[in-house]
Amino acid sequence: QMGDKIIVFIDLEATGLDTSQCDIIQLAAVCEERVFNKYTVPQQSMTDSAKQVTGFTVQPGRLFRRGSPVETISIDDLLTSFLDFLRSFQRPVLLAAHSVMRFDAPVLTRVMKKYDLYPQFQQVVSGFLDTFLLSKRLFPRIKGYSQVSLVGKFLGKTYDAHNAEEDAKMLQELYKVWRPEKSKVVISTFKVDEKY
Fold first, then answer.
1. Helix, strand or coil for residue 143?
2. What is the pTM of this model?
3. How far apart are the first and last CA of the chain?
4. Is the domain defined by 6-191 classed in CATH 3.30.1660.10?
5. Which residues pair with 39 in a beta bridge?
6. Backbone angles phi, psi at 25, to 5 degrees
7. Cβ-count burial of 193 within 10 angstroms (0-12 exposed, 13-18 middle, 19+ buried)?
8. Of the residues 31, 33, 113, 169, which has the fewest C-beta atoms closer than 10 A?
9. Which backbone phi and psi does 96 adopt, to 5 degrees?
10. What is the residue-averaged pLDDT of the chain?
């Protein structure tokens, strides 16, 4: 918690790493005990590396993870239900993700605009907190800053990485352990409409 802002930890899985055109497959968010987690069938095919990393595969109109079918909703339902989840906190939300400025923020921004939901998004989201940048500021001398290596180092565990819900939950746990001072959080936070 930062003043009147609430931090919601998010992660998204997508068809590839090209933020200018990839499709969202899974979007998850956690705040304390509350969890949002939805899947959607992407409109474009996945890159081979995305298939390998996430375990997702797509067949016409259906999504599978490691061979098991996953329940999906349409992308606009996914986005509107995500906005409803964020609104339910009834105050401005800070969205935190690992490398949010490099990936999650540009993808979410572009897709929200595409479905004419960006004004609603701006109303509820006050900014993005990049935990990758934050971790480098908090711990300038450690070896790796990937989320997997940070979870190993600070929480002493391995987890189902690249499942958005697990990623978001682990990020929240890391943040609780770090208990970062406000000044470090502030300089790792970006406004929603900053150019990236």
1. coil
2. 0.95
3. 25
4. no
5. 26
6. -110, -45
7. exposed
8. 33
9. -110, 130
10. 94
Token output for 195: 């150019």
Residues forming a β-bridge with 27 = 12, 38
pLDDT number for residue 4: 65
Q: Which residue has the tokens 């304390």?
A: 32
What is the rounded average pLDDT of the residues 6-15? 97
Enumerate long-range contacts of 170-177, CB under 8 Å, 24 or more apart.
171/9, 171/11, 171/96, 171/97, 171/98, 171/131, 171/147, 172/9, 172/30, 172/31, 172/32, 174/131, 174/135, 174/147, 174/150, 175/7, 175/9, 175/96, 175/131
Q: Mind listing the pLDDT tens digit for each residue in 64-84? A: 999 999 999 999 999 999 999
Instruction: Check residue 192 and give its pLDDT.
Output: 84
H/E segment holding residue 81: helix 75-87
The closest alpha carbon to 22, from 64, 69, 75, belongs to 75
Longest dimension (CA), the chain: 48
For residue 40, what are the contacts with CB-CB under 8 A and spacing of at least 6? 24, 25, 26, 63, 72, 73, 74, 75, 77, 78
At 75, phi and psi to the nearest 5?
-60, -40
Is 121:34 a contact under the CB 8 Å cutoff? no
Q: Are 40 and 74 in contact (CB under 8 A)?
A: yes
